[in-house]
Write a structure and sequence with these properties.
The complex is a heterodimer of chains A (about 190) and B (about 90). Chain A is mainly alpha-helical and about 190 residues long. Chain A is about 70% helix and about 0% strand. The longest helix of chain A is centred in the middle third of the chain and has 26 residues. Chain B is mainly alpha-helical and about 90 residues long. Helices cover about 75% and strands about 0% of the residues of chain B. The mean pLDDT of chain B is about 85. At the A-B interface, helix 1 of A face helix 2 and helix 4 of B.
């Protein structure tokens, strides 16, 4: 009954897709309409925090090296910090919009963790390609929460931030345990499955 | 304030039905993406290829998960937002 790594990645992709759709909906209707029902304010922060919590068992039970465990644990920590800060803002316990910097830190650390813990080049296998793609996507996307803090009502920043999570979901959905990427698969990666 | 960026109250009110339609379209479009994915990669669906498939192969496949997200958004999230937008008019 132990799920394969790709299955766990697909389940997390589902969480990120949901996160992206919540953020996209908020970007389309604007903060005022989104906040008309208080529970909606808690949706994406609590989902981010929950995904961080769920990353802990993945770190402990599903990683096969120290480097993998540290990378997964760093994603868990930063997702919980970012989600927790956003929950504080939604509840009114925190007031400064610059708390969004926690999201920037979360994305930058997560992106760096992806790039550092992937030891193979881009076309080694699909998994290696996705690690590089996810890492650079997160690092570039780390700018968006800063822009949101600077000008919170600009549609492009808010929709862009939502699209980042939808992109991350798509990349994670593309993951397979061992599979080629654009026709390339290193013999060192093992047999496709 | 530069009013060409903000728009008048009438213009903003006129945009609301379009926003409501957009919100209501997100769920069905997500479901459609899942269906197209299932058609493009039918081998992912255990119901079409049931041999040697385990629990996770039946339930946790990306096209099914994408469809499930679309259904959840359309049923739980979108109706309230659309209602709030139309209530504002």
């Amino acid at each position: 009954m132990t799920p394969r790594a790709e299955t766990v990645h697909w389940l997390f992709a589902t969480g990120f897709l949901l996160l992206g759709l919540f953020l996209l909906a908020e970007a389309i209707v604007g903060r005022d309409v989104w906040a008309k029902r208080r529970w909606r304010l808690y949706l994406w922060p609590s989902l981010a925090f929950g995904l961080g919590v769920l990353l802990w068992p993945v770190s402990v039970f599903f990683t096969n090296s120290t480097l993998h465990m540290i990378a997964h644990a760093s994603w868990a920590e930063t997702a919980m910090i970012a989600g927790g800060a956003q929950l504080g803002l939604a509840r009114g316990k925190l007031h400064s919009r610059w708390w969004s910097i926690t999201v920037t830190v979360s994305l930058a650390v997560s992106g760096a963790a992806f790039l550092i813990h992937e030891q193979n080049p881009w076309l080694f296998s699909r998994s290696a390609f996705l690690h590089h793609a996810l890492g650079w996507t997160l690092i570039v996307a780390a700018l968006l929460p800063l822009l949101q803090a600077w000008r919170p009502r600009v549609f492009a920043w808010n929709a862009g931030f939502a699209m980042v999570w939808i992109t991350i979901a798509v990349l994670l959905y593309c993951d397979r345990d061992v599979a080629p990427i654009f026709g390339h698969l290193s013999p060192l990666a093992g047999a496709p499955r | 304030m530069e009013t060409e960026f903000v728009g008048t109250l009438e213009e903003r009110t006129a945009r609301r039905p379009l926003r409501a339609i957009t919100i209501e379209a997100i769920g069905p479009l997500t479901m459609l993406a899942g269906v197209i994915w299932a058609i493009a990669q039918p081998y992912r669906l255990a119901i079409l290829h049931p041999h040697d498939k385990g629990f996770y192969d039946w339930l946790v496949q990306p096209p099914l998960l994408v469809i499930a997200v679309g259904v959840f958004f359309a049923a739980v999230i979108a109706p309230g937002i659309a209602e709030d937008l139309r209530g504002d008019e």
